[in-house]
């Protein structure tokens, strides 16, 4: 027996502080993604914690095909799905009732199905500039919060987590048709909210 | 003829599955005549393509600590 670490251990110890620093640096971004999706601080903290632990434990399996941070982000997405499945098993996900909030959509259209003047879509400006703008995303996050939980969950699974509607149906036990209806509603509401918030801020400058 | 509200249903649907020939034709016909819906269609597409990418891009761009080839340069796709 010897007290000296083997060369292999040495290498592992040398690599980890950098990785730990990188995990610490990426943590706030992971947290804001998890919050946006789970809409619950404690749950979001848990999911991020789990993801960071998994990243440390599985450090050796990071293959370098993507950036390290992107890899950790991928782990977080799995953990978020785990949290959601757990919530579902516990019966803590509200059932998806689809008729509750049609009013907000109806207000965007006249009775004959044309746009109401106040809701008529207008340009957001040059997309490349808009989507580079931190402010636009602040409006986006604020608009996400205004969506009902169920609507936001389906939208987020589709557009932020990148699941197909088929996968979403499996996760949430809903019919695909139901899923499309919810996504339609989510997009209309989000679009209207973004237009209101974003264009107001733009003209205020 | 299809009205704007119904057209937005197809614009949304098109982000999630392939439209049938009939759906696609009616949507395109409506869009040629309705500027507001063209704008909406464009914005639904933008949201679909950019909302998820926003985070992907942020993580890819994070400065790597060691710069030893595992940093932000590894692009997926």
UniProtKB/TrEMBL annotation, chain A:
GO biological process, alphabetically ordered: DNA-templated transcription initiation
Superkingdom assignment: Bacteria
Keywords, ordered alphabetically: DNA-binding, Sigma factor, Transcription, Transcription regulation
GO molecular function terms attached to this record: DNA binding; sigma factor activity
Domain RNA polymerase sigma factor 70 region 4 type intervals: 140-190
Domain RNA polymerase sigma-70 region stretches: 25-89
Family from the record: Belongs to the sigma-70 factor family. ECF subfamily.
PANTHER family recorded: RNA POLYMERASE ECF-TYPE SIGMA FACTO, RNA POLYMERASE SIGMA FACTOR HI_1459-RELATED
NCBIfam families: Sig70_famx1, sigma70-ECF
Descriptive protein name: RNA polymerase sigma-70 factor (ECF subfamily)
Organism: Halomonas campaniensis
């Amino acid at each position: 027996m010897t007290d000296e670490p083997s060369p292999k251990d040495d290498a592992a110890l040398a690599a980890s502080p950098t990785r730990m620093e990188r995990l610490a640096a990426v943590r706030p971004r992971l947290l804001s993604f998890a919050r946006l999706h789970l809409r619950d601080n404690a749950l979001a903290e848990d999911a991020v914690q789990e993801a960071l632990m998994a990243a440390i434990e599985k450090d050796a399996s990071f293959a370098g095909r993507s950036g390290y941070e992107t890899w950790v982000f991928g782990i977080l997405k799995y953990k978020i799905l785990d949290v959601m499945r757990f919530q579902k098993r516990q019966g803590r996900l509200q059932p998806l009732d689809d008729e509750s909030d049609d009013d907000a959509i109806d207000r965007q259209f006249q009775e004959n199905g044309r746009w109401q003047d106040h809701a008529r879509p207008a340009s957001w400006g040059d997309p490349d500039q808009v989507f580079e703008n931190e402010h636009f995303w602040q409006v986006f996050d604020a608009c996400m919060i205004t969506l009902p939980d169920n609507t936001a969950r389906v939208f987020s699974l589709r557009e932020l987590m990148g699941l197909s509607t088929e996968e979403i149906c499996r996760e949430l036990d809903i019919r695909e048709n139901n899923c499309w209806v919810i996504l339609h509603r989510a997009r209309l509401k989000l679009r209207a909210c973004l237009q209101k918030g974003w264009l107001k801020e733009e003209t205020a400058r | 003829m299809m009205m704007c509200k119904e057209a937005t249903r197809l614009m949304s649907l098109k982000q999630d599955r392939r439209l049938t020939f009939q759906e696609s034709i009616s949507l395109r016909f409506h869009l040629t005549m309705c500027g507001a819906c063209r704008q909406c269609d464009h914005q639904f597409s933008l949201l679909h393509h950019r909302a998820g990418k926003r985070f992907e891009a942020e993580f890819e761009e994070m400065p790597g600590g060691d710069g030893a080839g595992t940093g932000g340069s590894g692009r997926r796709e």
